[in-house]
Design goal:
8-stranded antiparallel β-sheet; 7-stranded antiparallel β-sheet; binds fructose -6-phosphate; alpha/beta; 608 residues; 18 helices
Amino acid sequence: MCGIVGYIGTKEAAPIILDGLSKLEYRGYDSAGMAVYDGHKINISKSVGRLKVLEELTHGGETMKGCVGIGHTRWATHGAPSTTNAHPHFNKKETICVVHNGIIENYIALRRKLTAKGYEFVSETDTEVVAHLLDYYYKGNPLEAITKVLHRVEGSYALGVVFAEHPDQLFAVRKDSPLIVGQNTDGCYIASDVPAVLKYTRKVYYVDNQEIVRLRGDHMHFYTVDEEELEKEAVYIDWDANAAEKAGYEHFMLKEMYEQPKTVTDTLSPRIQDDDIVIEELNMTDEELSAIKKIHIVACGSAYHAGMTGKYVLEGLARIPVEVDLASEFRYRDPILEEGAMVVVISQSGETADTLAALREAKKRGFRVLGIVNVVGSSIAREADSVMYTWAGPEIAVATTKAYSAQLIALYLLAMKFANVRKTVAQEEMKEMLEDLKKLPDQIELLLGNKKRIQRFANRYVGAKDIFFVGRGIDYAISLEGSLKLKEISYIHSEAYAAGELKHGTISLIEEGTLVAAVATQQHLYAKTVSNMVEVKARGAFVLAVTNEGNHDIEKVADYVIYIPETHPLFANSLAIIPLQLFGYYVAVGKGCDVDKPRNLAKSVTVE
Ligand code: F6R
């Protein structure tokens, strides 16, 4: 959601900015722009739509000469996508230039005050107040002007700022929106996320809340909002650069689906030692774990769906009551957190504004927060009391696949750890479960091998109007995720229902030929779900069933069946989701959709 790239050094800035922005396209955006200082003044180019429009406009950056600049991809919040609203934004004299990610919450009041002082606004954005406010406070010292502005603005921001009077400097500032800075021998870089600079440097610094960075060509300095200088430690990024590239796959989403066996192994294996579950990063003794009376899982979107499965697994194995909340609801519903409760927040990006706010709410009330997070060093990872990383590596496609799979694994491990200390599962069963966990990567591989068959089936549904997903228990949680995968990338309307709930309303939507995907992996609920399949079939539905190997009698009811290999029922999600991800993907490909960058969506949702 909005991407920022900045560069200052000995090379031409524009091509570096364009290249960096292209690595942030996954974040979602609807316009783009960049500003480069040419030795005399700051020049700006902006365009609506894809980054390639800006690339064409500037001939790949050729027409914007200069070695210091900032660029931005905007995901519209305040004001429609337009060149006027696209960033960068100037002060009136065009001497101060700003790009911004986040929301300035008090921008209306600031805009009113600045207007009263004679400032004129050209855009509808909240960001423009920052440019004018900087102008108001600037008396020759950029750092002083920035700190004054930071004391006035409320909300979330990652900012890149260039002052025409100080072209040997570039400024980066952050509060509650992600921002990193990096350095190599050619210069210094600003970016919203590591992939944007990976080609140039592996030495990066995570900018903390309310820190200001002054970047020069060959060094950078960090400051607090009170202009005190800070010491920061660099982090060396050891990702394989290919991890952030498509590596021959048609889409990042397909590549990431194929990375799932590795992701599962990477998340699992460091935490299984001598046939025991070891989660050192929990930083909790067995006594502390035993004392937990209730778990609140809080997350958004797919991470919430993983959390729903987590509830079944944690309650099933460890007999701890679990409540699962959408982060956007949790914060404002004044949740009742009783003594002995622990909060688990789940997030791929670690920057989701609602999830971060829920974490802070829980901490404010004195509760321990565990983060299940993918992006190392992200805000949630840094603010949680303990972090279980999901080792999925960079996830670029907007629709999550491998990070979701890794979240499931983290939740299984957590549930098994709790079950161990609470002695709620017999040793023998625990051993079998560990064996089942270890088999998951190969089983996922096997299911991925089925892609041609699923593609043929998916091609029949590119023209579908509605597709429903149903299941009970964990199968319902799987259905929610299957339905989200399909609708977010193919734009086909889809809903997921608890199978027993259909006849309380939704069944009236079933027409001749409507596809209903029924997930039936939970043997104790199997007969019930089959009855629900019969009900929809009787109303004309075409039924796709996803069930366990061996349930061949399902073919009497279902029109099309996908079998998943045998595993512990509580782990079935990890297998059943694979064909549903492939199905959603191939329907979207068949429709010619922009699979990796679906319309209106952003990868990292840093606004409420
Ligand atoms: C769907 C998807 C989203 C995210 C949600 C939370 O494919 O990716 O629903 O799961 O926006 O994002 P994170 O996990 O980054 O907090």
